[in-house]
Structures are given as structure tokens and as C-alpha cells.
Amino acid sequence: MISDEELNAFRVGGQKVRVVRDAVASNDIRGIVVAWDADQVLIRRPNRNVVKLDRNYVYQLSSEPRPELFE
After folding, report:
1. In a domain, 45, yes or no
2. Smallest Cα–Cα separation from 58: which of 47, 49, 50, 70?
3. Distance between CA atoms of 58 and 21, rounded to whole angstroms?
4. Domain count, the chain
5. 38 CB-contact burial (10 Å; exposed 0-12 / middle 13-18 / buried 19+)
6. One digit per residue, pLDDT tens: the chain, 71 residues?
7. Which domain holds residue 28?
8. Which CATH number belongs to the domain containing residue 50 in this structure?
9. Residue 68 within any structural domain of the chain
10. What is the pLDDT of residue 67?
11. Residue 67 to residue 71: CA distance in whole angstroms
12. What is the value of pTM for the model shown?
């Protein structure tokens, strides 16, 4: 699970993040961290829609290469 400190750094920096949910790269969510609570994170996508995601997914900077978690 991603920590509050990491989420706050993404939010304050205004950096675009990638949320890896499964093995299919096209299912990744990209956007800016808006808010979070103990279980979920709100991500604002480029089309201004807001998505509520579980904190157990992998969160990383969008500019970093995608990890191969599901081989």
C-alpha cells in the first residue's frame, strides 16, 4: 500500500502518476493525485474525470518505465 507521504509528494508536486492495476498496460490509469483516505485515492484524469482507486495498486510517476509485475 502506498504511504501518505508518497501520495502527498505526488499531490504537492502536481506530477502525473501511473496506476498499474493489472498485466494489461492499456488498463493503467494516468492522472494527478487529488485526495485520499485510508482505503482509496482520487485521481484526476486528463479529461477532468475523477477516478476512485484502491490504495493497494502500484502508484508511480508516469515518466518512469512501467514495472513488469505480472509475468
Report:
1. yes
2. 70
3. 7
4. 1
5. exposed
6. 899 999 999 999 999 999 999 888 899 999 999 999 999 999 999 999 999 999 999 999 999 999 887 66
7. 4-61
8. 2.30.30.100
9. no
10. 84
11. 10
12. 0.87
